[in-house]
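User: I'm putting together a small comparison set for a docking exercise, and I want a reference complex before I start. The sequence is below, and the ligand is flavin-adenine dinucleotide. Could you produce the 3D structure with the ligand included, as structure tokens?
Assistant: Of course. I'll restate your input first, then give the structure tokens for the complex.
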Amino acid sequence: MRYDVAIIGGGPSGAIAAAVLAKAGISTILVERNFENVKPCGGAIPLGLIEEFQIPAELIEKKLSKMRARSPKGRVIEMQMPNGYVGMVRREKFDRYLRSEAERAGATLAEGLVTTISHSGDGFLINTLNDKIPAIRARRIIGADGANSKTAEALFFPSSELKVIAMQQRFKYTPAIQKFSDIIEIWFDSEVSPDFYGWIFPKADHLAIGTGTEDKNHNLKALQKRFIEKIGITDLPYLDEAAKIPMKPRRSFTQEKAILVGDAAGLVTPANGEGIFFAMRSGKLGAEAMIEHIKKRIPLHNYEEKFRKLYAPIFFGLEVLQSVYYRNDRLRESFVAICSDDDVQRITFDSYLYKKMVPAPWSTQMKILSKNIFHLIKGS
Ligand SMILES: Cc1cc2nc3c(=O)[nH]c(=O)nc-3n(C[C@H](O)[C@H](O)[C@H](O)COP(=O)(O)OP(=O)(O)OC[C@H]3O[C@@H](n4cnc5c(N)ncnc54)[C@H](O)[C@@H]3O)c2cc1C
């Protein structure tokens, strides 16, 4: 069978792209290696995403508007989001729902591990392991196959550079850890992560606790073990999961007949490792560009230009933040101290929830700058 578009990967980026294409009447196949896949992920999503993609209430296990940041010296800052919340989802349910929406819109869903993609005529020929799916012909391709993208490799996209390796464990609630059930905790502490952070995310019936690092010399399991000890948990997790987080966009993620979206394109923001929003936004923008391309022959690179125009300032800002403050515990200590400022919290939460860089008034910028200098000199 020949399709207009084949999407490789059925996570949030691929599922959204499939739904948008199918709704526009484009014949679309989505190939996912495993419909039962449980993507290792904290599952924290901003309110803006929930509203834009009309995520059903039953998928949001928790709505959290309180967050605690903990410094290396144990200083704790508690923050309250005035205008919204972070939603907690469970990826196995979330991804399944998004794929079902794509199918409802008219996309074909097929299970199989894509092993080869080759140019053929005006399009591509796609094969799966053991020919689980008969060879697929498609005029165009969307690579939505995550951090280790087969599509990117097969079509020679520029390599993806910066990757955090992250691990997470799930702990069923017990009376001892119930106190974490209604607040997000973020730990900035080199004993937990030398260059990223540790997180405690509450879900309906468990805590998801994890850490990550870019540093290949660090033993991730040892960092996670220390984190769990520091929190004071003695119970055993019921699930261990680990995966890469690609925190830098590829130099280019568009070709004449193919695009990459989500993690495959490297669209996860530095400093916070947020990828679900950018996966879904890039899936949507990529699919819209694909529709224009198929119907009106408009070049696909419009997709990448639009994405960069919208989000490059956020990626840049967070890259600067990470490179300045995540370098050592003295700087992390300053960072947490700065987070105690109401204006910093307001700007951070407004930017996070709706992905808009909210320019602070000049007076606020000066106040934040002077606090920065003060804390950096004082070292706390
Ligand atoms: C430990 C951890 C915690 C995280 N926490 C958060 C968080 O709290 N909030 C947040 O916003 N982001 C978080 N992220 C990042 C987020 O998970 C990703 O950015 C997001 O899943 C990207 O979506 P995607 O659809 O692009 O890729 P993925 O979700 O990785 O989906 C790719 C899909 O492609 C399939 N696939 C791969 N190869 C093939 C192949 N060859 N053939 C067929 N199918 C294939 C996979 O099975 C998978 O279903 C976290 C990441 C990690 C590792």
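Residues 327-378 form one domain. The chain has a mean pLDDT of 93.
User: Thanks, that's exactly what I needed.
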